[in-house]
């Protein structure tokens, strides 16, 4: 068993749960009343950033008032749509249970709001497994800055050398590297293996069995 990792910091969207269909659907519903649309591929490529930053990048021609309305409309629909469309990746619950049983502490660092992530984990029946959740609204600088990881390390009392970030995006890998923790990429989410490696991933899991091996080798 790998005894080096004492704290595993997971991303949520695209790592713990497949929420891609939810994200695209909520964006479409938020934009439609304004006669707007977003390319799904471009949207998913930015998952991991705060929603405000995503809309600002993809709809730069919209004024601040419209941007705020779009974000609010998206969030108003997310809970209901997510309950229908978002699903845990097969085997994820069992992996998280095993990590806790092995004494590895768990946390979440996500581009969602902290409350949104807590609600998602509660809906998934996973909230009891995580010691802390930090969303993009809880730190001065969101991913890829190291603020989320540093907040979690300080809150839970762990050193960077005994911790890892598990995520599916380049933002996760860059955040982990900047904080001095191990960046472990998974390829079942939004960004591919080459991009993850270029962003600093020290290990790649192509399927859940690979992630098991990283923790329990």
Shape: globular
Helix content: 40-55%
- Subunit organisation of the chains: single chain
By secondary-structure content and strand pairing, the structural class works out as alpha/beta
Strand order of the largest sheet: 5-4-1-6-7-8
Question: What is the number of beta strands?
Answer: 8
Strand content: 5-15%
Low-confidence stretches: none
Query: What is the averaged pLDDT score?
Result: 94
User: Largest beta sheet, briefly?
Assistant: 6 strands, parallel
**Number of helical segments?**
10
First-last Cα distance:
5 Å
What is the alpha-carbon Rg in Å? Answer: 17 Å
Order of helices and strands: EEHHHHEHEHEHEHEHEH
How is this structure best described in words?
It is a single chain. The protein is α/β, with parallel strands linked by helices and 217 residues long. The chain is built from ten helices and eight strands. It has helices at residues 20-31, 40-45, 51-58, 64-85, 92-101, 114-124, 147-156, 170-179, 193-198, 208-215; strands at 7-10, 17-18, 87-88, 105-109, 132-134, 163-167, 182-186, 203-205. It has a six-stranded parallel beta sheet, sandwiched between helices. α1 packs across α4 (64-85) and α3 (51-58) packs across α4. It is globular, with a radius of gyration of 17 Å.
